[in-house]
Structure formats: C-alpha cells, structure tokens
Amino acid sequence: MKENITKFIKGLIIGVAALTAGAGTFAIVLGIYDRCMEIISNPFKNFKENLKYIWPILLGIAISAACCANLVGFLLNEYNAFTRCAFLGIIIGGIPTLFTVANKKGFEKKYLISTIIALIITIICTAIANNTKAGTEVTYLSTIELIIYGAIYSWGAVMPGMTTIHILIYLGVLAPILKGFTSLNLAIIIPFGIGYIALALTTAGMITYLFKKFYGMTYYAIIGFSITSLIMFIPEFTSIGQGIIGAIIIVIAGLLMYGITRLDKKIEETKEKEGALTNEK
Predict the structure, then answer these.
(1) In CA terms, which of 113, 119, 134, 190 is 20 to 30 Å from 143?
(2) Residue 30 phi/psi, 5° resolution?
(3) Mean pLDDT of the chain
(4) Cα–Cα distance for residue pair 68/86, rounded to 1 Å
(5) Which residues contact 260 (CB under 8 A, 6 or more apart)?
C-alpha cells in the first residue's frame, strides 16, 4: 500500500511537470525513469508485473494532468517565480538519489565526458528556448499536425533535461491543445496522443538499449541534462521579500522530494529483505 501511494504521488508530480518542463527529469530524480522506459519499450514482456508497477504512476499522471492543466497555466502566469521555485526545489531534492543510482555499477572518470556534452547541449537548448517568443495562436489544427505536435512534445517528456514545450508556444498551438485536453475534445486528444505514444515507444527502446550497454555513460549524461535543466527554473524576483519566500518554497519542495526518495529507498530495501528471507526459507 505504501509503495502504491508513493508511486501515485510521483505520478502526480510528473503529471504537473509534463505541463511545464517535461517529465523526463522529474522521473529520474524520483527514481522511476529507467524502469518506466523498460516497460514502455516492451510493455507485453512480464505484462502483469509491469502493470502492477506502473498503474499507480499512470493514475497519478492522469489525475494530475487533468486537474492541473488550467492551474499550472494560472500559476505560471500569476506566480511565475514561486512556481519555478517549487520545481527548482523538487529537482534539487532528488539530486542525491540521482548520483546514488548513477554510481550503482561503479564510477569512471570517462563518464564525466558525457556529462560535459550534455551540459553544453542543454545550455544551448535553454538559451534558444529563453529567446523564443510565443507566436500567433492558431485556431485550427489538422489531425496530421496534432500527431506531429504530439511527437514533438513527447521528445521533451522522455528525454531528461530537454523541453520542447517552447516549440509549441512558438508555433502558437500550446493553448488550443491544452484547451482541447481540459474540455475532453477527443478530436485533439486522440491524434496528439498517437504522436506522443508512437515517439515514446521508439525512443524508450533506444534509451533502454543505452542503459544496458553503456549504463555509466548514459546516466552521467542524464545527470548533465538534469542539473543544467535547473537553469530554466531560476526565477526573477522583484523584491527581497519575494526572494525570501522563494527560498522557503525551494527548501520545502526540496525536503518533500528528498523525503519521497528516502521513503522509496526504504520500501525497496524492505522488499529486498523480504525476498532474501523468502529465498532462505
């Protein structure tokens, strides 16, 4: 029960993150990224076990995204700095776990090369994104266009540290897509979902292969993407008071995230001990 509740909370966080900076980074710091990629790349292998693992996460994502689409938009518009602080704290709180997982199979100095490359790529992408201005909002989206936009958005969700939401803003399609989801417009949801799922399936297979063949290099590249993604969350304050409130939000969000990762670690350790005892019997 505790395990399912923890996964559900993680799903809630990822659902909100998917509406802003992409879910990949948050899935990593929450410790579920690589397992989810394995499941997505081959969902019918060990289907019952996979379903048992992922259903609380998917439920959390679905509820969070459905309930928070308008709320996230409101918070980003009205309380942009404080909202950024919350996401900043969440990522910071998960960094210790990220390094622990990355070093699970040992550490080699050459891994830092992939981190540096990832840092450079993310800095360039963030600089481009920050200079992107919203285009004229479109009023009509064809089925083919929605499939393409779904694929674009999916790339930012499954690739840690990368965000493609700015592309949708630039094209002027983000607002009508979000409106379509909140109003349950299937003419928008279905083709967008097809593009999203299709690219996620193909990308997940590639990422899973990299994890198996180049675990250390891949994870340290992800660390580079994740740490550099902090840049996009750095807020701008108009007063010292706002800065103090923002700092408090960062600390609270960071502690909550750290607490969730610690709880998840304890659950995994308990499962391992129970498994060991079962084997001894």
Answers:
(1) 134
(2) -90, -5
(3) 78
(4) 15
(5) 6, 9, 10, 30
Token pair belonging to 231: 């840049």
Q: Which of 253, 226, 105 is nearest to 159 (CA)?
A: 226
N-to-C CA span, the chain: 25
* CB contact at 8 A, 99 and 136: no
Q: Could you tell me the pTM of the whole model?
A: 0.63
Tokens of 12: 């809630």
Distance CA 168, CA 149 (A): 7
The position carrying tokens 């259903």 is 55
**Closest of 2, 19, 113 to residue 62, by C-alpha:** 19
Tokens matching residue 209: 């292969």
140 is written with which tokens? 């009509």
For the chain, how big is the Rg over CA atoms in Å? 19
